[in-house]
Amino acid sequence: MAQYLLSVHTGPDTSGNEMTPARIADMQAMEQEMKETGAWLFSGRLTGPDVATVVRAAADGETLTTDGPFIESKEHLGGFYIVEADDLDGALRWAGRTSAIIGQPIEVRPFWDTSS
Question: Does 115 reside within a domain?
């Protein structure tokens, strides 16, 4: 089985996409189904990009930190799932269900296969 990152993206205009009690219940039910089928490995919801800290290694060996997101953008990563699926189509089905519930786009990316 391959592992996939399902990235939940959000932006400044989320009107109509608020996480209502009904949407939260739908999300919890889907997550429970992910767990029962063995697809769910981990998930997380992130705070806003305004509280991000960027860390960079400088050429002189020092570490530099700056406030704010790495990239200034209207859209940002709001959360993610790490799932296991037989193939990309299986991961896309989970992403489609997630997108339908939360009303936001989901980016699907496979992890590198390091088994060989």
Answer: no
